[in-house]
């Protein structure tokens, strides 16, 4: 079998996210959980777009490999079977109920103000969705922190933006990647995924979530274009909370800048990883 085919089959196997035991408490059996909560569906793009596509990729020392696969239907129907009924109908349902009135004004572009507790609730909800999709690469201790503390674990960052969609059909962008937090690690052995980025787009709301092995990355990172110039709209960090309330709506992102923002952290990680490799083999 050619190496390219083996690579693609391996990636497709890794994309299988269903589990036999709950990823948060370990109980069996598991139930289906919507990636996009049912209450968000009326704000999403119409079903006429057909079956949604997903892509997964990996960067090796000498090549980049990727594979595409279709979801069973529209992305609003996307479900992953990885949580038990108790978690699904308990703390996760309560979180969904709490976040809906906070997110509706953001989704509709209406005037509102977010305080620290509001930002924590929205960030926890967004990280939960990211954990479900990337459950294979999130350690069980970090999932436990989310369940018990009702806040994202250390190392996670969440930003939001007021997104004015034009023609881009993006609703979910996902970047599972391998990055090196330690430049002394061997550059010749591809490491398993230890970082990922997800972007969720619901009408006027753009949510950017990162899970990274770098300390204080979210506090230091600024969204910019590849040439270093500022984006045309604002991308506001809500987690870790910055200490001041957020007035909404902010200056909007249009399609071009939303696409650039969805790739910005991934590009930064690849640059960091390449620098670490050069230093390691120096």
How would you portray this structure in words?
There is one protein chain. The protein has 282 residues and is α+β, with helices and mostly antiparallel strands. The chain has one domain. Helices cover 33% and strands 22% of the residues. The chain is built from 7 helices and 11 strands. The protein has helices spanning 3-14, 85-89, 91-108, 116-133, 140-149, 217-220, 255-281, and strands at 31-34, 53-59, 64-70, 79-83, 112-114, 156-162, 172-177, 195-202, 205-211, 235-239, 246-248. A 5-stranded antiparallel beta sheet has the order 7-8-9-6-10, sandwiched between helices. Strands 1-4 form a two-stranded antiparallel ribbon. Helix 3 (91-108) packs across helix 4 (116-133). The protein starts with a helix and ends with a helix. Mean pLDDT is 85; it is low at 183-191 and 275-282.
Largest sheet, spatial ordering of strands? 7-8-9-6-10
* pLDDT < 50 stretches: 183-191, 275-282
Total helical segments: 7
Count structural domains. 1
**Overall helicity:** 25-40%
Relative strand content:
15-25%
| Classification by helices and strands | alpha+beta
List the helices and strands in order.
Answer: HEEEEHHEHHEEEEHEEH
Which value, in Å, is the CA radius of gyration?
19 Å
What's the β-strand tally? Answer: 11
* Alpha-carbon distance between the two ends: 35 Å
């Amino acid at each position: 079998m050619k190496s390219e085919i083996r690579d693609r089959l391996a990636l497709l196997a890794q994309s299988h996210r269903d589990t036999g035991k709950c990823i948060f408490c370990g109980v069996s059996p598991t139930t289906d959980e919507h990636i996009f909560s049912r209450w968000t569906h009326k704000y999403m793009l119409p079903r006429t777009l057909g079956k949604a596509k997903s892509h997964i990729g990996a960067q090796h020392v000498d090549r980049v490999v990727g594979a595409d696969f279709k979801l069973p239907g529209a992305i609003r129907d996307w479900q992953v079977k990885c949580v038990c009924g108790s978690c699904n109908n308990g703390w996760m349902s309560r979180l969904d109920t709490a976040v809906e009135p906070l997110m509706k004004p953001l989704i509709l572009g209406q005037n509102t103000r977010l305080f620290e507790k509001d930002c924590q609730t929205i960030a926890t909800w967004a990280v939960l969705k990211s954990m479900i999709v990337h459950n294979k690469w999130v350690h069980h201790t970090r999932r436990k922190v989310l369940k018990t503390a009702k806040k994202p674990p250390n190392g996670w960052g969440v930003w939001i933006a007021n997104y004015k969609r034009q023609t881009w059909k993006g609703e979910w962008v996902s970047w599972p990647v391998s990055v090196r937090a330690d430049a002394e690690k061997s550059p010749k052995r591809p490491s398993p995924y230890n970082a990922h980025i997800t972007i969720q787009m619901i009408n006027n709301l753009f949510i950017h979530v990162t899970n990274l092995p770098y300390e204080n990355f979210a506090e230091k990172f600024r969204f910019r274009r590849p040439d270093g110039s500022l984006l045309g709209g604002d991308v506001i960090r809500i987690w870790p909370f910055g200490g001041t309330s957020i007035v909404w709506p902010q200056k909007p992102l249009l399609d071009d800048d939303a696409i650039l923002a969805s790739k910005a952290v991934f590009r930064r990680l690849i640059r960091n990883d390449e620098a670490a490799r050069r230093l390691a083999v120096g």
